[in-house]
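2 proteins. here.
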Amino acid sequence: MRGTAVEEFKAWCAEHGRVDRPCTTATYTEYGTYLMSQANRKDGTRTMKAATIRAYMSHIRMWQPPGKCPDRTMFNNIIKGWTEKNPRANSRKAWHHLTGVPDPCPIGR
């Protein structure tokens, strides 16, 4: 996933005239906001859960040169608000039926 996250970030920066490495906090935050906007698309071309977006942003931040990482505070505040407004952004699929593990809470399902 790290390679994909970084390559997509580099392409987005080139398309938007931004410097990818080291990137500013503004570029980092704007890209995170872009990923959230893509996750909300109704045509189904891209659907990313909050955890995936956070992982992408973490990979991008770790890819930055030592001592030049963008501040993630603004992005974290934005994604927190986004997840509160979009409950599906945090939804998880139940995999217990595929693994053969007994459902720990079968009542109500």
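next one coming up
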Amino acid sequence: MLPLLSLGHWGRGGRQTRPDITIAATCMADHPAFTAFWMLGSLVASILGGRTESGFELNGLSAIVFFASIIASFVVFNKHLGGTISNRLLKAKR
């Protein structure tokens, strides 16, 4: 039985060439990364003065620093460490 939303690849003759990884599993594995990005946003806001009563707000320089650090983390993880945190947790190769 195959999961409904699958990221697996199929080779010749209907044989699967790598293990099935469901979208749900990928989303669950991405949760720590999203939490880390929220914490990073809070840290950037604290340093650059973007804290508010209801949390934080990133505008101007703080938003640029935040988004640049997210992009840099994806580049570093994918290029030098073999994939994002969720890819490494699921042992998925992209």
